[in-house]
Write a structure and sequence with these properties.
alpha/beta; eight-stranded mixed sheet; 8 strands; 14% strand; globular
């Protein structure tokens, strides 16, 4: 692993106070945040549909950064990053690789959540020398069952959020149970901990491009997972409505070096946020092995 001299030295701090920086990727500024120890293989976090820097659970980021160099970023056209958001997962993967190389890294680990997990799979298959290990959460393979329904579910729950005056992530990421509702409220409160230098919300055009990319991913022919030779940890809640949990089981079974974290009970798409302590401990153990 090598880092460019222009890359700032990360410091052990909280995600709520980590400064936002930018790097030029072929003339386009990509924003990112970096924290944790300055040595070791960096862990790049790839975000979910409509998410920007401030949508990562600080308990997950801080927990990982206690022992790993962690980098979150906005891909092309998302949040405060420049350019236009592409409408294919493959193009998003290419942009992510360009971002990683712009920071000067030649070896990284990936944590992909939901759409970020689609992107991570493409990178792992196409850039085997770049990627050491992968963690896939709340995600599925190309052509996986139910993935082509993400647009319908997302729009329905956004409208539900408008009617009820609740954040739609409460419905999209957590089950409609007493446990799920408590977890959703706690998660949404944590997302408000950062009060200064917050990221820009995703634009409507970028959101539409991402939905189109996800729909295409869901309609593709079943993925050839045998091309991914890196160790992969797979995690999810047992009741994921956005990317049905059967996709998680399928990934773990078909990836040559897949490892399944037992599905989190009474949890959904945001299972790694609901069970952040358990997830962080397992992720660090996997990355250190």
């Amino acid at each position: 692993m090598s880092a460019a001299s222009s890359s700032p030295t990360p410091t052990p701090t909280s995600y709520a106070r980590t400064p936002t920086r930018s790097v030029s990727v072929r003339g386009v500024d990509f924003v990112y945040r970096e924290l944790g120890p300055a040595d070791g293989v960096p862990l790049i976090l790839l975000n979910h549909l409509s998410a920007v820097l401030d949508n990562w659970d600080p308990r997950v980021v801080d927990g990982l950064a206690a022992r790993r160099r962690v980098i979150t970023y906005d891909n092309r056209g998302v949040g405060a990053s420049g350019g236009s958001t592409p409408d294919t997962i493959e193009a998003m993967a290419r942009d992510t690789v360009l971002f990683v190389r712009a920071l000067g890294f030649d070896r990284v680990d990936l944590l992909g959540l939901s759409m970020g997990g689609f992107i991570a799979q493409v990178i792992a298959a196409r850039e085997p020398q770049l990627v050491r290990k992968v963690i896939l959460a709340g995600t599925g393979p190309a052509g996986g069952p139910g993935i082509d329904k993400v647009t319908r579910i997302t729009v329905k729950d956004i409208l539900r959020g408008v009617v009820t005056r609740n954040d739609p992530k409460q419905y999209l990421f957590f089950p409609d149970t007493a446990v799920g509702r408590r977890a959703a409220h706690a998660f949404l409160d944590r997302l408000k901990e950062r009060t200064d230098d917050r990221d820009k919300a995703i634009s409507v055009s970028s959101f539409r491009a991402q939905l189109k990319a996800i729909h295409r991913w869901g309609l593709q022919a079943p993925a050839d997972l045998s091309r991914i030779h890196q160790p992969v940890l797979v995690a999810n809640g047992e009741s994921d409505r956005m990317v049905p949990s059967e996709n998680t089981l399928d990934l773990a079974a078909r990836l040559p070096r897949g490892e399944l974290e037992p599905l989190y009970p009474d949890a959904g798409h945001g299972g790694i946020f609901q069970y952040h302590d358990r997830f962080v401990a397992r992720a660090l153990e996997f990355l250190a092995a």
